[in-house]
Specification:
The structure is a single chain. This protein is an alpha+beta fold and about 280 residues long. Helices cover about 55% and strands about 15% of the residues. A five-stranded antiparallel sheet has the order 4-3-2-1-5, with no helix packed on it. Helix 5 packs antiparallel against helix 6 and helix 7 packs antiparallel against helix 9.
């Protein structure tokens, strides 16, 4: 009896030691508190779910124990980047419109995975492979963006110099450079973000909406710069001739760009999730 208890305690300590090597004490306490039942052998308790831990669950029904006490029964559809794509069957938390779309659950939220109760079956088959999440030649992708990068870099200097003497020349140069930056930020894999291919049917179906949004942001950018240039002569000398004016206008333009990037990438990600259950 004592030998069995010692072995069990030793197993607990080994798991806790492994968890502490990857997480803080508070995170480990949270994992143990929310996943006690997994010490009884139903499933492996891991301090951090990794892709290799979750890959075997693709096209299987599973119960996901998540942070904040959420328990979700789902059909695991795919692994994309740092997200698990699932078709939610039931949950103790609301998932609006779950019958018509999939959901992305970040790996960091998943505490444990175990088989779903018997008697359940998938509502739909796995979707066809998504080109945006498939292997792709990065070198060819870089070549395709070289003209865009050149336009944003040295090309922008040439544009501003050539157009500054024309009415609204600075604004039109800004619109061209802003458009190039938007294409790069929306579709490229810069800074480790998800890439989106023009050849992907899902991306193609959203291009008209992206274009409409882009026209709106261009109009906002044009109005912000035009208003700023009209207001400049009426400002104090400090604001009119110093860096504060340029920095302020730059920050406003950057805010517009950030808002559009968030909007565009959210639209494309949601469109891919809505495609997943088809």
């Amino acid at each position: 009896m004592f030998l069995s208890a010692a072995r069990q305690i030793g197993g607990y300590l080994a798991i806790i030691s492994q968890a502490l090597s990857h997480h803080s004490v508070d995170e480990c306490i949270d994992l143990i508190a929310t996943g006690k039942h997994h010490f009884l052998g139903r499933a492996k308790l891991t301090a951090k779910m990794l892709p290799e831990d979750l890959a075997p669950w693709v096209d299987k029904l599973a119960v996901l124990s998540l942070k904040d006490g959420e328990s979700t029964t789902a059909h695991v559809l795919d692994l994309r980047g740092v997200d698990l794509i699932v078709d939610v069957l039931s949950s103790n938390r609301p998932y609006p419109d779950s019958e018509h779309r999939a959901f992305a659950i970040p790996f960091r939220r998943i505490l444990s995975v175990c088989p779903a109760p018997s008697g359940l079956s998938p509502r739909r088959a796995l979707p066809a492979p998504d080109p945006c999440y498939s292997d792709y030649c990065g070198f060819v992708r870089i070549l395709a963006f070289v003209p865009v990068i050149l336009l944003i870099g040295p090309g922008s200097v040439v544009l501003f110099v050539m157009l500054q003497e024309f009415p609204y020349g600075t604004q039109f140069a800004s619109l061209i450079v802003y458009t190039a930056a938007t294409v790069l930020g929306t579709f490229s894999a810069a800074k480790g973000q998800q890439r989106y291919l023009f050849t992907c049917p899902v991306v193609g179906s959203q291009l008209s909406r992206l274009f409409q949004r882009h026209v709106g942001f261009l109009a906002a950018l044009f109005m912000v710069e035009t208003a700023a240039f009209h207001l400049r002569p009426h400002l104090s000398a400090y604001w009119r001739t110093g860096k504060p004016f340029e920095v302020t206008v730059g920050i406003l333009c950057l805010c517009l760009y950030s808002a559009q990037m968030f909007s565009n990438r959210f639209l494309l990600k949601r469109a891919h999730l809505e495609r997943s259950p088809v």
